[in-house]
Amino acid sequence: TLGSAGAWELLAMRIVTGLPVALALVVWAGRARELWDAVRSWKTYRYMLMTTALITVNWFGFIVVITTKGLELQASLGYYITPLLSVAPGMVVLGERLRPLQVVARVVAGVGVLALTLEGQWPTCAIALALSFSFYGLMRKRAHVGPMVGITIEMGNLFPLAAAYLAWSWLAPGGLSVAALPPAKLGLLFFAGAITVAPLLWFNHGAQRLRLSTLGFIQFLAPTGQFLLAVLVMDQKFEGARVVTFVLIWLSIIIYSIDSVRHHRGARRIGTAPGSS
C-alpha cells in the first residue's frame, strides 16, 4: 500500500508518530509520576533497555517480511513459532509448568509449524520474529512497569535515533521515499504509527496478568489472521504442507481450549467448596 517506502523509514515513522500518542495517554491516565520513577530506577530501566532492543528487532523484521514479495507467510510462521518458544523461558526462568494436555497441544502445534518450515528455505526472518517477541514477553513480565508506561519508555528510547534518521534521510540526496507518497498514503502512514501503541498496550497488559505459557498460546490467533491474509489477499499458495500446518495449528488450539475449560471448572469447584478460601 505504501509503495516505495523502505523498512527503516517505516520503522522510524512508526516510532516518531507513536510516541506523542503514548505520552498523551500517560498524561491522561495520570501516570506521569510512574513514568518518571521508572526512568530514574536503573533496576527497572535496564529491563526497559532490553525490551527496547527486542521490540526494535521484532518491528523491523515484521516490516521487512510484509513488504517483501514472497516473504509474507514468514510473518505468519514467525508468530506461530513464538508461543512455542515462549514456553521455554516461562518454565526455566519463572518456574511455570504445563499440564499434560497443554504439552500435547504444543506438540501438535510444533508438528504443524515444522511441516511449514520444511516446505521451503530456512525461515530466517520468521525465527528472528519469534525469538525477539518471546524474550520481549519475558522481559516485560520482569520489568514490573505498567503497560502504558513501558511502551512510552521504549518509544522514548528509540525516538532520538528515529528522528535523527528521518532528518538525515530527508536531507540526503534523493530524500526520503515517503516524502514522495500521495497525501492520502502519507496520512495512512502517520495513522499506522499512532495505532502501534494499541496492540502493544494490550500485549503488555496480558504479559503482566497471564502466565507466559497462556499468553504465548493466545498469540496463535494473530498468525492465523496473517496466514489467511497471505492466502486470501496476497495470493500465496495454500497447498501441501501449508494445509497440514493450518489444520494442526487449529487442532492444537482446540486441545488447549478443552484443557483450559476443564481446569477452570475444576478450580471453580474447589474455590466454591465448603471450607475453601
Please tell me about this protein's structure:
It is a single chain. This protein has twelve helices and no strands. It has 277 residues and is an all-alpha fold. α3 packs across α7 (147-171). The longest helix has 32 residues, at 241-272. The N and C termini lie far apart (56 Å). The model is unreliable at 272-277 (pLDDT under 50).
- Count of helical regions: 12
Largest beta sheet, briefly?
Answer: none
Distance between the termini: 56 Å
Percent of residues in beta strands: under 5%
- Residue-averaged pLDDT, rounded? 78
Rg over alpha carbons: 21 Å
What's the total count of β strands? Answer: 0
Name the structural class: mainly alpha
* Low-confidence runs: 272-277
Q: What general form does the structure show?
A: globular
Helix content: over 70%
| Helix and strand element order | HHHHHHHHHHHH
List keywords for this structure.
mainly alpha; 277 residues; single chain; 79% helix; disordered C terminus
SSE topology:
Layout: H1 7-28, H2 32-40, H3 42-67, H4 72-94, H5 100-117, H6 124-143, H7 147-171, H8 183-194, H9 197-209, H10 212-218, H11 221-232, H12 241-272
Short structural description:
The protein has 277 residues and is mostly helical. Helix content is 79%, strand content 0%.
